[in-house]
């Protein structure tokens, strides 16, 4: 099912939201799915059926012309604006839809693949808090020099010592020979999230695959089940 995605300005102002999985009335967990360049939300929702767990609803925003931003993920951020900010706003709007059906951020799992993984990374960087988890697949934070990038923070640390991402489990799954995303950029992205207070799990597989592997699909299913209370969440640490 598809619906409009209100509240988004810029290049993706006409973006739509494709939904699947559990109906809103039965949703306990929301999985926000962000497709890659040339992909579609419909295709990603169909693929997500492989890790569907009853009680999980799928929310997949769609990029205008299947392209979230024009330049490469390793280009200066300014080269991808205003499209990047508009893409991040699509993810924020999907999370708001989850909230509207009663799913708290702590029960929202973000999954971004390829260019969509860069969008999810930037969303987490700009809107840090405790989420149910995130999978950044075959992707890295946008920007020419990731050493200069940091999770947005007001500089405050609460009484328990929590930092902006508050131990959100973030998995970065890639491959050693990925033709589009060098391993060093994946590790640099992990460093940014770790400094921001996330519990980071970086997994670099052998080979040159790009996109969702069977192993990553299984891990997403495990995390979804854990959020639903059907299993124990993995501790995320590199």
Task: Describe the secondary-structure layout.
Blueprint: E1 2-4, E2 16-21, E3 29-34, H1 41-48, E4 56-61, H2 83-100, E5 108-113, H3 115-126, E6 133-137, E7 169-175, H4 183-195, E8 199-205, H5 214-227
Parallel strand pairs: 3-4, 3-5, 5-6, 6-7, 7-8
Antiparallel strand pairs: 1-2, 2-4
Helix pairs in contact: 2-3
Write a structural description.
With 238 residues, the chain is α/β, with parallel strands linked by helices. It is built from five helices and eight strands. The chain has an eight-stranded mixed sheet with strand order 1-2-4-3-5-6-7-8, with helices on both faces. Strand 7, helix 4 and strand 8 form a beta-alpha-beta unit. Helix 2 (83-100) packs across helix 3. The longest helix has 18 residues, at 83-100. The protein is globular and about 45 Å long. The termini are far apart.
The fraction of residues assigned to DSSP E strands is: 15-25%
End-to-end distance = 37 Å
Number of helices: 5
The structural class is: alpha/beta
Biggest sheet, in brief?
8 strands, mixed
| Overall morphology | globular
**Share of residues in helices:** 25-40%
Order of helices and strands: EEEHEHEHEEHEH
Identify the strand order in the major beta sheet.
Answer: 1-2-4-3-5-6-7-8
Low-confidence residue ranges: 156-160, 231-238
Total strands:
8
Q: Rg to the nearest angstrom?
A: 16 Å
Average pLDDT taken over every residue:
92
Supply the key terms.
eight-stranded mixed beta sheet, alpha/beta, 5 helices, 8 strands, globular
């Amino acid at each position: 099912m598809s619906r409009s995605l209100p509240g988004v300005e810029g290049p993706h102002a006409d973006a739509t939201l494709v939904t699947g999985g559990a109906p809103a009335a039965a949703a306990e967990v929301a999985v926000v799915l962000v497709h890659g360049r040339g992909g579609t939300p419909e295709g990603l929702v169909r693929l997500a059926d492989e890790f569907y767990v009853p009680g999980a609803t799928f929310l997949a925003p769609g990029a205008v012309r299947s392209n979230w931003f024009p330049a490469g993920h390793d280009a200066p951020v300014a080269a991808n604006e205003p499209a990047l900010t508009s893409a991040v706003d699509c993810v924020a709007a999907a999370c708001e839809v989850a909230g509207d059906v009663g799913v708290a951020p702590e029960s929202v799992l973000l999954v971004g693949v390829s260019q969509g993984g860069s969008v999810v990374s930037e969303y987490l960087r700009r809107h840090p808090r405790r989420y149910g988890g995130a999978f950044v697949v075959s992707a890295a934070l946008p920007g020419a020099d990731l050493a200069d990038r940091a999770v947005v923070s007001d500089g405050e640390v609460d009484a328990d010592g929590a930092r902006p991402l508050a131990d959100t489990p973030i998995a970065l799954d890639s491959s050693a020979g990925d033709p589009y995303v060098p391993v060093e950029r994946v590790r640099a992205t992990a460093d940014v999230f770790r400094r921001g207070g996330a519990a980071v799990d970086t997994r670099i597989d052998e080979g040159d695959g790009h996109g969702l592997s069977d192993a990553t699909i299984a891990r997403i299913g495990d995390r979804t089940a854990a959020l639903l209370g059907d299993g124990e969440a993995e501790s995320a640490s590199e």
